[in-house]
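Slack export, channel: ligand-projects

TW: morning all. Re-posting the request from yesterday since it got buried. We need the structure predicted with the small molecule present, not the apo form. The ligand is nicotinamide-adenine-dinucleotide; the SMILES is in the block with the sequence. No rush, but it would help planning for next week.
GE: picking it up
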Amino acid sequence: MPNVTPASPLRDWLAEPTAGQVLRGLLASQGQSEEALAPALGLPLEQLVKMSGGKFPPELVDVLVTAAETGQIPDGLPTAAPAPSPTGAAVPAPEPDLGVEIGAPEPWTEQVTPGRFGGRSVVVTGAASGIGKAVASRIVREGGRVIAVDISADGLAALAADLGDELVPVTADITAPASADAVLAAAGGRVDALANVAGVMDDDAAVHEVDDTTWERVMRINVDGPMRLMRAVVPGMLAAGGGRIVNVVSEAALRGSAAGAAYTTSKHALVGLTMSSAYQYAGTGVQINAVAPGAVATGIPMPAAAPYGSSRTAKMRVAIPRLAMADELAASITFLLSRDAVNINGAILPSDGGWSAA
Ligand SMILES: NC(=O)c1ccc[n+]([C@@H]2O[C@H](COP(=O)([O-])OP(=O)(O)OC[C@H]3O[C@@H](n4cnc5c(N)ncnc54)[C@H](O)[C@@H]3O)[C@@H](O)[C@H]2O)c1
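GE: finished. pasting the full C-alpha cell output, ligand included:
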C-alpha cells in the first residue's frame, strides 16, 4: 500500500517516487514548477484538484493513487525526472537549523460560537464561492441571518439549500446601481453588518500591459461595488447607533509585488475607503475595518497571465508562507464583524500566515 491518500498533502505526493514524477510532469506541461507550488505543499491533493479550475481533473487523483500503488507510470502522461536531491536547483534551499526542537503545527479546527450573531442581519457579497461562502456559512451557523449576494444564482441556490431559511439569496451584480436597493429590500431595511467579499483578480499585468477592459472591470467590482453597498447601509447603521463593515482587500493592498497594476490599485483604493470611512464615522458605533488575505485555496478565476508582469510577481510568490483555507479567512472576518471587535476601527488586518511580516 502506498503511504499517500487523496487527503495527503502535496508535499508527500511529490516525495512519492512514481506519483511524484507524474505530478511534476503535469506541472511542467502547464508551465508550472514545483517551486511555484511551495505555499501549497501542505494542501491535500484533493483540495488542489478542487481549486484548480479544471486544470487538474478529478480523475487525476485516481491516476496518482494507481501510480503510487503499482509503481508504474500510466501510458500517455507527461513525466518529469525523479525528485532532485535536496541540493538540486528545483527545490528550495533547506531551512536553517533553528537549534530547538520543532513539533508539527497543530491542525486548526473551526470553533463555532453558538449565538454569536443571534438576532443580527449581515450582508455578505461573493457568498456563492470561496471566502464569502465560508463567511456566510459561519454566520448562519452562529445564529445570524445572512443576505447573501452574488452574481451566481446557481451558487447561491446551492448554499441556500445547505443553510436553510436564515440565508436570503440575492442574485445581483454588485456593479449595477440598482443592486444596493435590492439588497436593502431583501434585508427588510435592517443591516447590522456588511462583509464586502466579492472581488476579481487581474492578469498580473504591469501598467504598460494593462488593457482598459480589465482595468475598468477590476475597479468596478473591487472598488465601486463595495462603495455602493457601504453608501446604502451606513445611514441605517448610523440611525441604529452602530454597525460593522469589513472590506476584504488583499496582500496586494499591503505591497506592490502580489498582483498586477489593476488589482493592486483596486485593493489599495479599498483600504483608502475603509480608513476614510472609519475616520468619518468614529464614535458613532459604526466601525469599518478590512481583512487582507494572503494566498487562499479558493476557485478564484485567474485570467491568463500577462507575460511581463506575471514574470515579476512569480518571483515573489515563492515567499508565501502558506496557503490558507477559506474557513480560516472566515474566522478573521467574522471576528471583525462580531461584537468582540468593539474597539477596532480603521484596522487593516493581514490574515496571511505572516507573509506581510516578511
Ligand atoms: N483567493 C485568494 O487567494 C485571495 C487572496 C487575497 C484576496 N482575496 C480576495 O478575497 C475575496 C474573495 O475571493 P475568493 O478567493 O473567495 O474568490 P471566489 O472567486 O471564490 O469568490 C468570489 C465570488 O464573488 C462573486 N462575484 C464576482 N463578481 C461579482 C459581481 N460583480 N457581483 C456579485 N458577485 C460577484 C463570484 O461569483 C464569486 O462567487 C476577493 O475580494 C479577493 O480579491 C482572495
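GE: first-pass observations. Confidence is low (pLDDT under 50) at residues 85-91. Residues 121-357 form a domain with the Rossmann fold fold (CATH 3.40.50.720).
TW: perfect, thank you
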